Amino acid sequence: MDHVVRFVGPNGALELFGVKLVGINAENGKKLLFTVVLIAVVLLVGRLLRRVVRGATGRDHRAGFWFRQGVNVFSTLVIVVGATSIWFDDPTRLATALGLFTAGLAFALQRVVTAMAGYVLILRGTTFNVGDRIVMGGVRGDVVALGFLQTTIMEMGQPPSVQSADPAMWVRSRQYTGRVVTVSNAKVFDEPVFNYTREFPYIWEEMSVPVAYRDDRAAVERLLLDAAGRHTLKIAELSEDDLRRLEERYGTRRSDLNPRVYWRMTDSWLELTVRFIARDHGVRDLKDAMTRDVLAGLDALGIGIASATFEIVGLPPVRVRRTAAAPAAGQLAGGGAVAANARAGDEYPSGKE
User: Fold this and answer.
1) Mapped to the 3 state alphabet, what secondary structure does the chain carry?
2) Is domain 202-301 classified as CATH 3.30.70.100?
């Protein structure tokens, strides 16, 4: 066995079947063992800390998110610093290795480095947090997880105007499609990130109803205001802090936060649009309830929804004129009575012979 595997030389290099393996010696074996133990201990401690944080934060998803990110960053730093201290005891070798490593990253892993830089940017907290409803990289949904390289989003549906987008979408409103999408963190540098709920859990919403010009538009306006008042968020339900943030974010006054109906004239009908404040979640249920009330109210008023249709109320009278065919020469010679009795120019009403 000594002739098959043995350590030779002052550095204890490993020799296998008489072949000396470069870089594999007793010292490197010890460093590898220490590195594995370090990584295992850090990962175990990190897992225990995440469990403790999960139990301490409960349903506070934002606090749990930031604690988990802190644990991940701290664990990564400990592993990197510890492994560097174990393997590079010579500062000169460390500088050389860092130079080669950064040069390789800059050349071959540009997108990876950009994604990690995007992660650092997201950690500043000004882009989005877990649970926020965002549009990132063309994907709209709620943020469920954040990693060093990717953001995980629970996808939502798209409006009918972009149903043909790639990939295809079958849900027509802000409800989950069931697909979980991962988006590179590098997208924060390439495209704008739309955040629905970063600072304020309320959004502006609108619902439009087209009515004919001959209908009672004032009654329709009252109907829309009543439906919005019953189902949408009431200003009295907002806390003082929410009202203050709403005024600062949108530059509005509190008197302007109540539901309001706007009129717009078109070539075919009058469009009445009610504008109101809604919570960031449950908008489809809200508009469904409002739509049912509005339709019931329109039926009670005897008012229909205007549409671009044509009604045919009648046809003008149609007359058909039939002229007798000219007889042949033989018929004229021997059958003058027939020719004499032929009536040219008889008129018949439409639909009769």
Assistant:
1) CCCCEEEECCCCEEEECCEEEEEEEHHHHHHHHHHHHHHHHHHHHHHHHHHHHHHHHCCCHHHHHHHHHHHHHHHHHHHHHHHHHHHCCCHHHHHHHHHHHHHHHHHHCHHHHHHHHHHHHHHCCCCCCCCCEEEECCEEEEEEEECCCEEEEEEECCCHHHCCCCCCCCCCCCCEEEEEEEEECCHHHHCCCEECCCCCCEEEEEEEEEECCCCCHHHHHHHHHHHHHHHCCCHHHCCHHHHHHHHHHHCCCHHHCCCEEEEEECCCCEEEEEEEEEECCCHHHHHHHHHHHHHHHHHHHCCCCCCCCCCCCCCCCCEEEECCCCCCHHHHHHCHHHHHHCCCCEEEECCCC
2) yes
Indicate the domain borders of the chain. 5-108, 133-195, 202-301
Whole-model pTM above 0.70?
Answer: no
- Tokens standing for 66? 């930031």
Q: What is the pLDDT of residue 103?
A: 67
93-150 residue pLDDT tens: 656 666 666 666 666 677 888 888 898 888 876 788 888 889 998 888 999 888 888 9
pLDDT on residue 300:
93
pLDDT digits (tens, 9 = 90+) for 165-210: 556 666 767 788 888 999 999 999 988 998 888 777 778 889 999 9
- Separation between Cα atoms, residue 312 and residue 246, nearest integer Å: 52
Averaged over 12-27, what is the pLDDT? 58
